[in-house]
Structures are given as C-alpha cells and as structure tokens.
Amino acid sequence: MTSLSLSHGSGVPWKRSHASPVKLVAICGIVDQVTRTDALDEIADLLPPQGLVAVDGVDGAGKTTFCDDLAAVLRERGREVVRASVDDFHHPQSVRWRRGKSSPEGFFLDSFDYERFIDRLLTPFAQGLPFQRASHDLETDEYVDPPAEVAPPSALLLVDGIFLHRDELAGRWDFSVFLDVDFAVSVARMAVRDGSPSDPDDPRNRRYVEGQRLYLTRCDPAARASLVIDHNAHRPPNRYPA
C-alpha cells in the first residue's frame, strides 16, 4: 500500500507549495483504489469543521465522483455533509445560448445563475438559514422551487461544479479543491460518458473546451484553490452507453 502524507513531499504524491504554505499540490494522480482511499482520508483531515467546500475542475475531471467519495468518508466519521452541485443552478437555455449556441464566451459567462446560487444556497447555508439546493431543472429547462432545508451548525456543504473559482465565487469557500486534468483526458472521458466527440479540437466541442480555457486563463483556479490534485490518472466508471 502506498503511504501518503500531506505534510511533506518526499516520496509521496503530495507536496506543499513554496509560494503559499497553505496550498497543497498533488504531483501525481490518485490511481488505484487503495491509494485513492488513503488520499481521501487525508483530504478529509484538511477540511474545516463546518462551512463551504468547493470541488472544481473542467468537464470530465471526475468532480462528482470525487465529491461523493469524499462525502462518504466524512459521513463514516460521523460528520454531517450536505451535497450540492452548481449544475442545479443553470440559466434557462434562452440565456445560456443568447450569445450563440456554439459560443465559448456564452458557455463561460451565461451557463449558470450565480445570483440564485449565492442567494439560495451559499449565503443562507453559511448563515445557518434555510437554503435550497436547486433553482433550475436542466432536463425540463424550467425554474424549480424545492422545499427549503436547514442544516445543523456543524454541517459541511460540499459543492461540485465547473467555474467555482470565478471572481464572484472564489472568496466564498472555506476550502476548495481543483482537480487538474488535461483536456485530452477530460474530453475522452466525456466521450465515454455522454457519447460526445473524443477530440478536444472537434468543432462540436468548441463551445465547451474553449469556454473552459477562457475560465482557466482569466481566473487561474489552480492558484486560487486550497488544494490542487492531478486527477489525470483517475479511472471514472464507464457510463455510456446506458
């Protein structure tokens, strides 16, 4: 079994960044299940006792699986975890496509309703008030108004999604993770999952790949995150065809 230590970088897949003593950088991927379990245990040790935690990364980085696995580790320790995703706060299609169906700028700027995301989920959760985990159903393209929930004061909100280190969100997290994955890897995963083209340069991928490149350039999420993980080696489940 590989021994992981997040406190040093000698012979292990983690090291502290010299630029920022609070930043931990993974220098190799989480590969096998034993290593992944050990890593999730150590990541769980880093999280605050309560508050807001983000798991960011490009489409196909493995964010949802990572979040679900991390939540399971935390719950095994008796911690209260609320899972949420920015995917449940999309704008309607009329807004998402207002710059054009293939627009990278539209994907980056118009995909999500951050006002509702902040006002309905992040702010009330942080203040111990009733919150909602969704405002929009992507399948029906309709706004939704789910029942409000209240979490105990010790609860951790664990949110997955793209673009979570945008300017309007970066300062809201008590801890954040960026899963670093090359587009050649992430787009291939998306092809397996969704049946989309596997080539990042395919014109049908332009909106998504170039939109996320805009985000990486403008916001530098790896520099803003509390923890960066090389997730190229992660093997997600094969979900296509259904």
TrEMBL record:
The transmembrane residues are: none
Q: Which Pfam families match?
A: PRK
Which keywords belong to this entry? Kinase, Transferase
Where is each Phosphoribulokinase/uridine kinase domain found? 53-194
The domain of life for this entry's organism is Bacteria
What Gene Ontology molecular-function terms does this entry list?
A: ATP binding; kinase activity
InterPro entries assigned to the protein according to its UniProt record, in alphabetical order: P-loop_NTPase (IPR027417), PRK/URK (IPR006083)
Q: Does the keyword GTP-binding apply?
A: no
Output this protein's name: Uridine kinase
Q: Source taxonomy lineage?
A: Bacteria, Bacillati, Actinomycetota, Actinomycetes, Pseudonocardiales
